[in-house]
Design brief:
Blueprint (H helix, E strand, L loop, with lengths): L2 H4 L1 H27 L4 H9 L18 H14 L1 H19 L5 H13 L4 E4 L13 E6 L2 E11 L7 E9 L13 E7 L5 E4 L13 E10 L4 E2 L7 H28 L5 H29 L9 H23 L10 H8 L1 H4 L4 H15 L12
Parallel strand pairs: 1-4, 2-4
Antiparallel strand pairs: 2-3, 3-7, 4-5, 5-8, 6-7
Helix pairs in contact: 2-4, 4-5, 4-7, 4-8, 5-7, 7-8, 7-9, 7-10, 8-9, 9-10
Length: 386
């Protein structure tokens, strides 16, 4: 029995999901063209209960697991991957709080209250947002009496203009910086409301795809943060969840590209060669989708061997997503690259799969190191003459 069958909040949200996906798809081209924030789409996701599915049952939520989160993000990505990307970080934030709480309870209660009043998007500022390589924080925090002041810049923050809360990793400066509880890292997590005084959004989003994420720079000009809004240092987002949830968005893009190509081919005479090419798309897409779902279910069951496999799944899913869209273009010819059709947008959106998160060579290198640590059976005999 699935989680959706057990919890009424999940059942209701999944019942509304198809209509939300249709609404997102209907407005995706407009938002892509204008690079404007998709307020209507985010509102629809919120009203359907999809934005808070991962809130723990102890907080009154559905406690959605990773498998259902992957399913939701794949469907939202099929409608509009920008909306899916914006919703993903909020879903993952609630999921992390459900499993390894790092928000202080009173502050998290404020986030939950905001989520009742309307869409309460959470932004994770820094490489933690997509599991990318560690980088020096773009913000610093200095003591101001009992509280803190944040100064600095965070580049390309998804949904910057509409964030209710921001999780900001800041480097501590000043004589008493260690009192924030950062330990040896020299940094701490600060939970900042999006409309806090001193928070400024600087327009300048000119990326190739996912344009409706409206990922602008955020400036912090002496932003006040209370001592009660400093989070316990911990992983901001679970790497296993990141590895499976975010690629699900890109597979949603690939699914939309596949659907468009199928519809186009149905209107024209086809032959065996085209059937086989379409079959390759089907096999590649289904394999990646099933891999993400199966591994997510293992993580939900607490399988201790599952987390170390998520990096490999991320590689497979990313390659499949990009490859499927490229093959859809090859089948469609010049029409696939015309702005008159959505496939051209899918091409630009799916390319961001390669630019987000850990680079493929880093994931491959880690897989190689793990193989060497675990071994692969008896030591082979020496090579003659070696």
């Amino acid at each position: 029995m699935t989680t959706a069958a057990r919890h009424p909040l999940l059942a209701d949200a999944f019942a509304r999901l198809p209509r939300v996906v249709d609404l997102l798809a209907a407005r995706a081209e407009e938002h892509d063209r204008d690079a404007c924030f998709p307020y209507q789409g985010i509102e629809a996701v919120h009203e359907a209960g999809l934005l808070t599915l991962t809130v723990a049952e102890r907080y009154g939520g559905a406690g959605c697991g990773l498998a259902d989160t992957v399913r939701v993000l794949g469907e939202l990505g099929r409608g509009d991957p920008s909306v899916a990307q914006l919703g993903a970080l909020t879903l993952l934030t609630h999921a992390q709080q459900a499993r390894a709480p790092y928000w202080p309870e009173p502050v998290y209660a404020d986030l939950l209250a905001d989520s009742v009043r309307g869409p309460a998007l959470v932004g994770v500022l820094g490489p933690e947002a997509d599991g990318g390589p560690a980088a020096e924080p773009g913000a610093t925090a200095r003591r101001d009496g009992a509280d803190w002041r944040l100064t600095g810049r965070a580049p390309a923050v998804a949904g910057a203009e509409a964030l209710a809360w921001m999780v900001v990793t800041a480097r501590l400066v000043g004589d008493d910086a260690g009192t924030a509880g950062a330990g040896d890292t020299g940094t701490a997590l600060f939970l900042v409301q999006g409309d806090a005084p001193g928070v400024q959004v600087e327009p300048g989003w000119e990326q190739l795809g996912l344009r409706a994420t409206a990922s602008q720079d955020v400036l912090f000009d002496g932003v006040p943060v209370g001592s009660d809004a400093v989070a316990v240092p911990s992983p901001v987002l679970d790497p296993g969840w990141l590895d499976l949830a975010l690629p699900a968005v890109h597979l949603g893009v690939a699914r939309a590209a596949r659907d468009w190509a199928v519809a186009a081919l149905r209107r024209t005479p086809t032959e065996g060669q085209l059937h086989a090419a379409l079959g390759r798309i089907e096999v590649e897409l289904l394999t990646a989708e099933e891999l993400l779902r199966a591994l997510a279910e293992r993580i939900d069951r607490g399988d201790p061997g599952a987390p170390e496999r998520t990096g490999a799944a991320r590689i497979v899913a990313t390659r499949a997503a990009v490859g499927v869209v490229e093959q859809a273009v090859a089948l469609s010819g010049s029409a696939g690259l015309s702005r008159a059709h959505p496939l051209e947008r899918h091409v630009r959106d799916v390319l961001h799969a390669r630019g987000h998160g850990p680079r493929e060579h880093d994931l491959l290198a880690e897989a190689g190191r793990r193989a060497l640590r675990h071994g692969g059976g008896p030591t082979p005999p020496p090579v003659p003459g070696g």
